[in-house]
Write a structure and sequence with these properties.
about 425 residues, alpha+beta, Serine Threonine Protein Phosphatase 5, Tetratricopeptide repeat, 5-stranded antiparallel beta sheet, 15 helices, elongated
């Protein structure tokens, strides 16, 4: 629509109308500017002036209330002004939290709880607000109300995961309750909770966490779960560890090569797969006097072998072990291929097998000295009536003498023998 301003009267009327609207705008802008300026001053009277200038602005009664809350003498006035602020803007969670703080100082716990809940309802996805709500209810001893707020924290703030889980466990101590009310259904969070329980040696709760993790039917990386197997084996839960290992192989296909192949109970006996340093694969520890390495230039079968280089100092063992589930009162045949180069010692390396818990020895092969091509080391043994887990390691007996040279091992095997085979 176009206005015809050729008439002098119309031009004057348009100019007057424009001036009027400009004056109204400038008046409101000046009022808002002056109110904001007054609110920055420390005096209470200046903030009161800001409120009178802009009575619909929720920030000014909130600023006044914060100042009043610093003085217990004006605490009731602070509560009143926070109420005005939340009435003007009920969607500002900080106002509700400030009101909750004022109620706390006044000793009005019931009103404080209501204000905390209103803050969380006003801003339901912000971790900071949920964290304050969760901690409030923890201080009140109301774990059931606190845990759902921790769910918000865990779902939205990765940096707070460990501290939130610590608080949940300390307050509840019930893994099922935490899974039901605090943990979002995500493998990474379930793994973090499992890691916490393993660190605290809470075996029963860790088993519950593992069951929940598997029940998600979602993929997750295997390596963060390996400490769980160390806990299970340390607490002699061999059958549970074996079941969990198979479950892990179903979740992470990279674990499938670490299941026993055919009748051979030793996992990764040819060292063709990377060493996991956990679970039912090889476990190793750094040893400055016996350096472990995967060698792709020397091997008996496949394309790799394990080399151990002794530097001339004392090395009681090679620092590598595998734990193998077995049956009690059963016969087994062990074999391994080995090659040596210039091993010089009064006590060379040898393979040793024994009960993983009692450390009772079952078999020790001859020690390896000098330089020799690939040849087989063999041993037969029968497990004890209570043995369900054995160790297989490279050791030295006696361990004391100095040793220098290099050893390669490959194609380790452990086969259960039938009664007929054991009799021969």
């Amino acid at each position: 629509m176009q206005m015809d301003l050729r008439s002098p009267v119309r031009r004057v009327a348009f100019a007057g109308l424009s001036f009027f609207f400009a004056a109204v705008y400038l008046t409101f802008a000046a009022r808002a500017f002056w109110a904001a300026h007054l609110a920055t001053r420390p005096g209470e009277s200046d903030i009161q002036k800001s409120i009178r200038l802009e009575p619909s602005n929720s920030e000014y009664p909130a600023v006044l209330a914060r100042n009043q809350a610093l003085s217990l003498a004006t605490l009731n006035d602070a509560v009143s002004n926070f109420k005005i602020a939340v009435k003007l803007n009920p969607y500002q969670s900080s106002y509700w939290l400030d009101l909750a703080g004022a109620y706390q100082l006044a000793g009005e716990t019931d009103h404080q709880a209501e204000a905390v809940q209103r803050a969380a309802a006003a801003d339901p996805m912000t971790p900071h607000v949920a964290w304050q709500a969760a901690n409030f209810f923890l201080l009140q001893g109301d774990v059931s109300k606190a845990l759902p707020y921790f769910r918000t924290v865990l779902a939205n703030d990765p940096d707070s995961t460990d501290s939130a889980l610590q608080l949940c466990w300390r307050a509840s101590g019930d893994a099922n309750q935490i899974f039901d009310h605090a943990l979002p259904q995500r493998p990474d969070l379930y793994l973090s909770f499992l890691r916490l329980l393993v660190a605290k040696q809470e075996t029963a709760a860790a088993n519950i966490a593992w069951d929940h993790l598997i029940a998600l039917h979602q993929p997750f990386p295997a390596r963060p779960a390996l400490p769980y197997f160390r806990l299970l084996l340390a607490s002699e839960q061999v059958a549970s560890a074996m079941t969990a290992w198979r479950q892990l192989a179903q979740v992470d296909e990279q674990i499938r090569p670490y299941l026993p192949v055919s009748a051979n109970l030793i996992v990764n006996g040819g060292f063709e797969e990377p060493l996991l340093n956990g679970g039912f694969d090889w476990w190793y520890e750094p040893n400055p006097n016996a350096k472990l390495a995967i060698d792709t230039t020397q091997f008996y079968g496949g394309t790799r072998s394990l080399s151990v280089t002794f530097n001339g100092r004392n090395a009681p063992d090679a620092g590598i072990t595998q734990l193998v589930p077995v049956k009690p009162n059963a016969d087994y045949a062990f074999s391994a291929q080995s090659k040596t180069q210039d091993i010089d010692s009064a006590s060379g390396p040898r393979f040793a097998i024994g009960d993983a818990y009692t450390l009772s020895p079952y078999a020790v092969t001859d020690d390896l000295l000098g330089s020799n091509p690939w040849h087989k080391q063999e041993a037969r043994f029968r497990t004890g009536p209570a043995t369900n887990l054995i160790f297989v390691k490279i050791t030295r007996q006696p361990p004391g003498p100095l040793i220098r040279g290099k050893l390669w091992v490959d194609d380790l095997r452990l086969i259960e023998l039938s009664h007929a085979e054991a009799a021969h």
